[in-house]
Structures are given as C-alpha cells and as structure tokens.
Amino acid sequence: MNQISLNPRLRTDITFPKWNGLKSYAVGSALFSSTIIMLILGTLLIQSHPALFANDLNLLSEVWDPAGGQYGIIPMIFGTLIIMSIAMIIALPLGVLSAIYIAETRSDRLKHILKSSLEVLAGIPSIVYGLIGVAYLSIWVAEGFELQTGRVILTAGLLLALMILPTIMTLSEDAISSVPRAYRENAASLGLYHYEIIKDIVLPAAKADIAGAALLALGRALGETMAVMLVIGSLDRLPSPLFNVLASSQTITSKLGREIAESAFGSTHFSVLVLMSLILVAFTLILTIAAQKLFTKDPHNA
Amino acid sequence: MFSRPIKLTLGTWTLTAALTLLSACSSPSTISVSGSSTVLPVVSRAAQAYSDTTGQRIIVNSGGSGVGFNQLAESKSDIGMMSRDITDKEKAQYPDSQFTPVAIGIDAVIPVVSSEIYEAGVTALSLADIAAVYKGEVDNWSTFGGPDKEILVIDKEASRGTRHTFMKAVMGSSTAKAAGADLVLGANNEEQTAMAQSDAAIGMISLAWMNDDVRGLSIKDGASLIDPNLKTIADGNYPIARELIIVIRDDISSEAQKFVDYILSPEGQTFVETSGYIKINP
User: Are the beta carbons of B184 and A235 separated by less than 8 Å?
Assistant: First the structure.
C-alpha cells in the first residue's frame, strides 16, 4: 500500500552499505511479507471454496439463517459499503482541510504539537472508540433523532469517521508539507495569492500522497471490527427504506466478529464467513489497484 | 516517515518471539475454560478460589455456548461452558470425539423490560404475549397496558445458550427466528447495558444479571402469576429454566478433571449460589 503514496521525489535510489547481511535481510523480509499475503489469499480461497460451489445457499439473498441453511450475504455487504461511504464523506474533506490549515498556516512549533497529538489519536485502540461509541455517541444519536436505539448505521459511520480522521489528517499534512519550498517561492514570486498557491500548486503536487492517505484510511474503515460491532446493532437485514441510515445493520467485519468463533471449522457456515472476508479483501485490492492506476500514471505531470 | 517502520518491525519481531516463548513455557500446566457468559461467573469464582489454594493456573474466557463447544472440540480449551445442550449438528461435526456434559447448577432465562416500562405497570406477560412481540405482531407497549411507546425488541446471537432456552420455551423451537427484533446482541452484560440505556426495551437475560434498571417479568399462566425467583425456579414451576453445563472431552487432563470435581464438591457448589443460581446437589 505504501507504494502508491510514494511521491517521485521520495523515490530516491536507496543505496545499501556494502554489507551483504543487511541486504539479504531486507530481501528476505520483503519476500516473507509477500509470501504471507499469498498465504492469506490462498487460505481464503481454499476455505471459501465449499460455499462458492454449494447449491441452495442463496448467497445473494437477504436472509441470513444458518440453522435453516440460508446464507444471504447481501445485507452485510450493503452495511459495509454504506458505513464506509458515510465515514469517508465526513472524514475526507474534514481531514484534508485541517491538514491544509495545519501545514500552511501554523508555526512549526504549533504544527509539531498538533501533529503529535494527531498521531496519538491515530494509535488509540479501536475498542476504546467502541466503548465511547456505546457510552456516548449512540446515546446522542438516539436522543438527537428520537430513536429507540442509537445502535444504527449513522452512529457506526460517525464513529468510523472519527477513527480515520487522524490518519487522513496526519498523512495529508505530511504530503502537503513535503511539497518543496521552491515551488511555493516560485509561485509567490509570480504574484500568486496564498490561497492560489495552495489550490493550484501545493494540492496538485500533493495529490497522489493525499490519495494514498485516503486509501489507507479507507482500508482501516473497511477492516474495523470491534468499534463497529458494538454500535451497529448486528441486525442481518437490509434497512428499510434502503438508505435509511437510522436503522440497525450489520457489516462483514461485525458479522465475522460475532460468528466466526462459534462456527465449526470446515462447516458451510464457516465457509460462507470466509467467503465474506474474501470479498472484503477483494474490495481492498480493487481500491488499491484503482488508486494506483488513477494517481501514479504520470507522476511528473500530476 | 519511511525509516521508522523498520525499527518498529524489529521491535515487533522481538516481542512476538518473546511472547511465543512465554506462552510455550506456561501452557502445559494451565487449565483453559471458555464459553457461556451465563456459566462464567460460577466457574471464574470457583477458579479463583481453586487456584488460591492449589496454585493451579486457570484461564476462564467468555464467548458464548457455541464458542465454548467449538474450542473444546478443537482442543483449544480443556473445559467448555454451556448454558444449553450440545446440538446434534455440533456432535455430528466431531464424530471422533466423545463429549460429556456435566450439570453444575440451574438457571432461568428471564424476560426482562426496561425499568420505565416495569414501573408503568407492565410487570407480567404470558409466553404467548412475549412470542407475539418477538414475532413482530405487537410493536407497542400500550397493547399490554403500558405507555404508548414502540417496543425495542432485543434479540441475541443465534448460538447463545440463553437464546436457545428462551426461544424453546417462548416460540417452541430453540432456533426460531425473531422477525420483530430491533437489535441483536451477545453476552449478558452487553444486553444489560442496552436494556439500561433504553426506556422501552424487552430482552432476555440470565437470572443473575437482573438489576434495578433491568426488571424481570412474571409469567402469566392462565389466572396465576409465576414470579422469577430462586424458589419458583428450584421447584420447577418457572417455565424458562435450564441446566448450567460444563462439557469435557474423554481425553481430559487430570488437572482439569480435579477442577471439575472441585466445582461439584460442596465447597465448589457454594459459588453457584453466590453467582445467583441454584445448586445442582441441594
């Protein structure tokens, strides 16, 4: 994932010291990580195989009932997508705008303080966010919208937005700060206003890195389990009407979190759950590839 | 930004290696127990007292009856805690192993409502009333003489023993679907929190988990009322009762067997009572 966030300026040739031990350690580590990815994909494929080729599972239905042999995964996929969208719609503009504010208008000292606190925020374990979600956020949502319960799609989306905001802010800030000073000075000497420099010079130059930040955040949003599980309501049903964000729902991760341990290894139930995680991995892969194609085609002309 | 992760990786490696070594050293003498959060209070109290006197290490984890059985069957634990019987489907998945359920106490599943509803006068419902709520046929407390509020119907994860017992008594089948459910939650404490946060909820909870915010309903049976208390459960009148079970494999270690014997001993049985349940050997 890091590759797409590499700005051409950062891609300087890394020269290894003439110590072969370190070099082979680096090569070994790289191979090791790629082997793990292959192993994970392979395992997911093998384990989800029975679900893919079994008949009568009604995978594309809306009914989830393992006791009755019904394994409809549509509600979970829908829940995942809608919660991810809410989180990104809220967090991306907020995060990028805050990053511009911090990077372009604050003194170095204040920037340092803000950045450090953001990095702490990004490192808080998700269960802590989940507990805050159960104790406060879901109550506020329930009171604000006069709902029976605050464990709904909107709460999960807001909580996720809160969780990925620091990632977007701190990485976008890195991206904006690393645009060379010479660019800004040239633009300023041509008579551009500060906001024009930001809009026409700095942001386009930092575009690929900001996209990388967004993608990393999206990855976290897709994979977040504990916090979402606690505030989503865990109802395997499509909301009605479909885009009613004040209804309880279920995501792929919350489903896995609640059920993977209780399904017997090798059973159909287990296999369908693995299939859902395969779909999740596929989402992430497609997003990564799409972002690579979109943002790194011609880095010199970005 | 790109130099820091390398140090981190090295640190993580060292930590992982150290942890692996640690866990490898401690595993043989440790008894691992997991499963139903209903049985958990009894076993963890007993485990505390047992390890204080014998020095035996015991790890007790929650997860639900289904998890308890699976971990036991896959040799990830020594003892499984269950608040329902092992299903035929579960047995069929592990044909090569023999499992022995041991009853250690008796519990009841209580239909509970938010304190606001209880204080507004809904203190008893018949099993048919409760079934209608879970089926989605009744969705307002005014039907039962309560306030004009929509009912927040709280269901439980399908593998939970509490749900099996409740659905069997109320709907007639332990795996009955609840079309009227608004929320699906897991352990008793999660349900207790949601019940306390709402002012119009109905749910199912194990006897030991009732409190001032989560009030148990009496069951209407014709003209008579059956209160949820230790007496009606012990004499078998309360209709939604079950045995608390721990399950063992036939290749159980001698340390784990000694702990099971301890739970069944008169001293061990006192923890069944302190946890709010009823002793199996009165």
Answer: yes
Q: Has residue A136 been placed in a domain? A: yes
Domain span including residue A167: 64-301
Q: What average pLDDT is seen over chain B?
A: 85
Is A33 domain-assigned? no
A74 in any annotated domain: yes
List the CATH code of the domain at B107-234.
3.40.190.10
ipTM: 0.73
Instruction: Look at A236 and B74 and tell me if their CB atoms are within 8 Å.
Output: no
pLDDT at A65: 84
Specify the pLDDT at position A18: 64
Q: Which two tokens stand for residue A156?
A: 């999960």
| Among B242, B281, B246, CA closest to B108 | B242
Residues of chain A with pLDDT under 50: 1-6, 301-302
Structural domains of chain A, count: 1
Residue A265 at interface with chain B, using a CB cutoff of 8 Å: yes
Residue A298's pLDDT is 52
List of chain A residues whose C-beta atoms are within 8 Å of the C-beta of residue B150: 148
Query: Quick check: B184 and A264 CB within 8 A?
Result: no
pLDDT at residue B87 in the model? 86
The mean pLDDT of B222-244, rounded to a whole number, is 88
Is residue A14 in a domain?
A: no
Residue B138 binned pLDDT confidence (cut-offs 50, 70, 90): very high
Model confidence pLDDT, tens digit, residues A222-259: 888 889 999 998 888 888 888 888 999 999 999 998 88
Residue range B180-193: mean pLDDT, rounded: 89
Q: Which of B34, B114, B197 to mutate to test the interface with A (most CBs of A within 10 A)?
A: B197
C-beta atoms of A258 and B2 within 8 A: no
Does domain B2-105+244-279 sit in CATH 3.50.50.60?
A: no
Q: In this structure, are strands B79-82 and B31-35 parallel, antiparallel, or unpaired?
A: parallel
pLDDT at A35: 95
Structure tokens, A21? 């031990």
CATH code of A138's domain: 1.10.3720.10
Burial of A195 (0-12, 13-18, 19+ CB in 10 A): exposed
- Going through chain A in order, the beta strands assigned E by DSSP cover 64-65, 70-71
Mind giving me the DSSP string for A210-250?
A: HHHHHHHHHHHHHH--HHHHHHSB---S--SSTT-TTS-B-
Q: Does A146 contact chain B (CB < 8 Å)?
A: no
Separation of alpha carbons B126 and B119, rounded Å = 18
Q: Where in chain B is the domain with CATH 3.40.190.10?
A: 2-105+244-279, 107-234
